[in-house]
Design a protein that fits this description.
Number of strands: 13
CATH architecture of the largest domain: 3-Layer(aba) Sandwich
Helix content: 25-40%
Number of helices: 11
CATH class of the largest domain: Alpha Beta
Number of domains: 2
Bound molecules: adenosine-5'-triphosphate
Shape: elongated
Radius of gyration: 24 Å
Oligomer: single chain
Distance between the termini: 39 Å
Largest sheet: 6 strands, mixed
Strand order of the largest sheet: 5-6-7-3-8-9
CATH superfamily of the largest domain: P-loop containing nucleotide triphosphate hydrolases
């Protein structure tokens, strides 16, 4: 059994002139689970991944695989498999040919090429020019490349982008399987909904700073709950709510009461003898929670 390898980001910082692309990012990405690296476009995901893979030098801080920087790994391709850009393949060469070049360079047996092509479902298209591949097929080729060295760590930039629904379903199961084998799987995405059914842990980055690290389950429990309530005597309702410690917000038809449940508000109206014409529980979806996180004030 190969030793599991965590990814460690320790105060990773990168500035491009006056742009603070990544600021003091510290996190551990553990083996045995899929971790989602989430944030809007320009948040700093790609820069962080490029630093991790030794493609860009950090301004300060370190990014390691079990304590070793990428450039110091004895056998990089068999330790870390990465696919950063689905579009970086030469259009005139076949998928199989691409993999053959990398396999030769990394001294990986040729037999492995057919194995990874099969794993990603590209066998029938393997000998076609990559120029004719769909984005989803290029994603699969990127994944095949990442898997060539049978690595313990897999790092994929936006791997779900461009896949059709069947492809999405497939990659979800595939990534979960890799994690279940004890591998460390890190995938980036700018949409939580895209990776929601795949990831166990979540790192959320915004403006170069980590704004959330934790399990998806914890993020789900942050769901805001609110109650929509309306009364023919809004002033009486408002004053009853405020007296009870709620912070009602006016809406066109009544009030939105954050952090409340319908039963408590209904009971309050009953005891305060305020007539209600509307009482409705509102549950914020996980994607909304994520979007709120994206627009919240700085948390550092
Ligand atoms: N080589 C560079 N020179 C100057 N600025 C850069 C460079 N690379 C990235 N940036 C800037 O750093 C910030 C973070 O970019 P980065 O590509 O890491 O974000 P991202 O989260 O990966 O976004 P996307 O999902 O759009 O790829 C952006 O403001 C970007 O313009």
């Amino acid at each position: 059994m190969t030793t599991p390898i965590p990814i460690q980001l320790n105060g990773v910082t990168k500035t491009f002139g006056s742009v603070h692309a990544v600021e003091n990012v510290t996190a551990t990405i553990n083996p045995g689970q899929v971790t989602g690296f989430l944030g809007p476009n320009g948040a700093g995901k790609t820069t962080t991944l490029r630093i991790l893979l030794g493609l860009v030098a950090a301004t300060s801080g370190s990014a390691t695989f079990g304590g070793t920087a990428y450039r110091d790994l004895a056998s990089p391709l068999t330790t870390v498999g990465a696919a950063l850009e689905a579009g970086s393949f030469h259009p005139g060469r076949s998928g199989r040919n691409h993999l053959a070049v990398y396999a030769t360079a990394a001294r990986i047996p040729k037999a492995r090429i057919s194995v990874v092509l099969d794993m990603v479902g590209l066998t029938s298209a393997a000998d076609r020019r990559v120029g004719g591949y769909s984005l989803g097929m290029r994603q699969r080729l990127g994944l095949a490349y990442a898997l060539l060295g049978d690595p313990q760590v897999i790092v994929l930039d936006e791997p779900i982008n461009g896949l059709d629904p069947e492809g999405i379903k497939w990659i979800r199961g595939f990534l979960k399987q890799l994690a279940a084998e004890g591998r460390t799987v890190l995938i980036s995405s700018h949409m939580l909904s895209e990776v929601q059914q795949t990831v166990d842990e979540v790192l959320v980055i915004r403006n170069g700073k980590l704004v959330y690290t934790g399990s998806l389950a914890q993020l789900e429990s942050r769901h805001a709950t609110a109650v929509l309530v309306a009364s023919p005597t809004p002033d009486a309702l408002q004053s009853a709510l405020v007296t009870a410690g709620f912070a009602p917000q006016q809406t066109p038809t009544g009030f939105l009461v954050p952090n409340a449940n319908a039963a408590a508000i209904g009971h309050l109206a009953f005891t305060e003898r305020v007539e209600l014409h509307e009482l409705q529980q509102q549950n914020t979806g996980l994607e909304d929670t994520f979007l709120e996180l994206m627009s919240e004030g700085e948390t550092r």
